[in-house]
């Protein structure tokens, strides 16, 4: 069982493959169950990154601000690249395989729901890259508190949506 420190503040998602069949046992899952599981894993990496920022922000010494800010910005880049790839590569493939115009629109709307929060996060980190001494954990916490709810709701909803496409 994961430690409580590893569990938060954002809760991780159980993969559908694991939920349906314990590790090591063979299964005959279709492409959508497998895709939902891979998506859950990808989002868990994103959520763990966000969790690590939240957990460690209070422990960063001024001499380490620049490195922490760089790490936090890398986490932004991971989130942005992941969602850009979903919209330009993955969603069109799912649309084609599931056969439905607009089938991924809800997921695109979920991306839009956290776009402003993600932009605020990025802009704060870019500002800090030239003035690391201005780092404020309280300010970063406020930004993450605004960003986290839609960002954390999205992967659970997407995983369930991909499962709903299973035949």
What topology does this entry show?
Layout lengths: L15 H5 L10 H26 L8 H34 L6 H9 L1 H16 L6 H28 L3
Molecular structure report:
The chain has 167 residues and is mainly alpha-helical. The chain has a single domain, classed as Four Helix Bundle (Hemerythrin (Met), subunit A). Helices cover 71% and strands 0% of the residues. It contains six helices and no strands. The two termini are 32 Å apart.
Number of DSSP helical runs:
6
How many angstroms does the end-to-end distance come to? Answer: 32 Å
| Helix content bin | over 70%
Q: How many domains make up the coordinates?
A: 1
Q: What is the alpha-carbon Rg in Å?
A: 18 Å
| CATH architecture verdict | Up-down Bundle
Strand content: under 5%
Low-confidence stretches: none
Structural class: mainly alpha
Instruction: Please count the beta strands (DSSP E, at least 2 residues each).
Output: 0
CATH secondary-structure class: Mainly Alpha
Give the CATH topology: Four Helix Bundle (Hemerythrin (Met), subunit A)
Largest sheet: none
Protein name: Hemerythrin-like domain-containing protein
């Amino acid at each position: 069982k994961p430690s409580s420190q590893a569990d938060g503040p954002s809760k991780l998602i159980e993969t559908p493959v694991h939920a349906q069949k314990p590790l090591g046992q063979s299964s005959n899952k279709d492409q959508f169950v497998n895709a939902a599981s891979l998506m859950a894993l990808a989002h868990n990496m994103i959520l763990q990154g966000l969790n690590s920022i939240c957990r460690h922000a209070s422990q960063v010494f001024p001499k380490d601000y620049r490195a922490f800010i760089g790490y936090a910005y890398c986490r932004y880049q991971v989130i942005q690249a992941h969602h850009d790839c979903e919209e330009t590569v993955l969603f069109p493939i799912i649309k084609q395989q599931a056969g439905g115009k607009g089938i991924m629109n809800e997921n695109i709307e979920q991306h839009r729901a956290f776009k402003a929060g993600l932009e605020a996060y990025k802009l704060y980190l870019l500002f800090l890259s030239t003035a690391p001494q201005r780092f404020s954990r309280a300010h970063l916490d406020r930004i993450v508190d605004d960003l986290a709810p839609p960002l954390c709701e999205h992967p659970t909803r997407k995983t369930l949506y991909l499962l709903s496409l299973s035949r």
